[in-house]
Specification:
The protein is mainly α. Helix content is 65%, strand content 2%. The chain has one domain. It has a two-stranded antiparallel sheet.
């Protein structure tokens, strides 16, 4: 132990089950500027997640997507109102907003001296990207549901999880014809799939947090389901 009194504060990351993480000294964090580096990376990821893809696609067609269909800015409503091909492009871009921070930004940022491990940084950036999509500062903090962006995060973390939740989504959507129900079931399944595959505990905790946010954003859908007004695939142009 070094003489620097700030090294009294040791931050362990016991996230990997059965593994002991290397300690990070609080003094090194401050003196090395790690915390200063991490903050702008999180801000940049948040703003990337906040790119209002659906709204921009709607404007290309001369409409405000928030005033049509379900009012949501996500790919499903864009596909329903604007067209399936524009909706597909929105889906890909929204997924990319979650995939890029995890696969491209996180590995580079670790080399910049951030005060967390690579695994922890990946889930932090993933959560931040989804948060930017849901609580969008460009749309008065009323963004999308976060499903596509979260799927991009899962694809970046471990493609097996992305395939698993996509499988859940497909089964439920074919059984019920409700995209909202399928999305909620997929969100609920993600943490269980991660636990089954024994992925890092902080990934599981992060997926629980994101799942809760996605479910909360589906509250209007729950109300429409209760009143029998929720859109079904194959009905009302969906």
């Amino acid at each position: 132990m070094r003489d620097d009194p700030t090294t009294f504060f040791i931050r362990h990351e016991p996230w990997r089950i059965g593994q002991k993480a290397d300690p990070i000294f609080f003094g090194d964090w401050i003196n090395g500027g790690g915390g200063v580096i991490l903050f702008p990376i999180l801000c940049a990821t948040y703003l990337m997640g906040a790119i209002p893809t659906g709204v921009l696609m709607g404007r290309l067609k001369g409409i405000d997507i928030r005033r049509h269909g379900s009012g949501n800015v996500g790919a499903t409503n864009v596909a329903r109102v604007v067209g399936k091909l524009p909706g597909f492009f929105v889906l890909l871009i929204d997924m990319g907003k979650g995939w890029v921070p995890v696969v491209i930004l996180a590995p580079h940022a670790v080399g910049w001296g951030v005060p967390v491990t690579g695994e922890t940084l990946k889930i932090l950036l993933g959560i931040t990207a989804v948060a930017g999509h849901i609580w969008n500062p460009f749309l008065q903090f009323q963004g999308g549901k976060g499903v596509a962006t979260a799927l991009g995060v899962l694809l970046g973390l471990d493609p097996r999880i992305a395939v698993g939740v996509l499988g859940i989504w497909l089964v439920v959507v074919f059984a019920t014809r409700y995209v909202s129900v399928a999305s909620v079931c997929a969100a609920l399944g993600a943490p269980f799939l991660m636990a089954f595959l024994e992925l890092p505990t902080n990934w599981i905790l992060g997926s629980i947090l994101v799942s809760c946010a996605i479910i909360a954003r589906h509250r209007p859908n729950f109300l429409r389901l209760f009143h029998g007004e929720e859109h079904k695939i194959g009905r009302d142009g969906g």
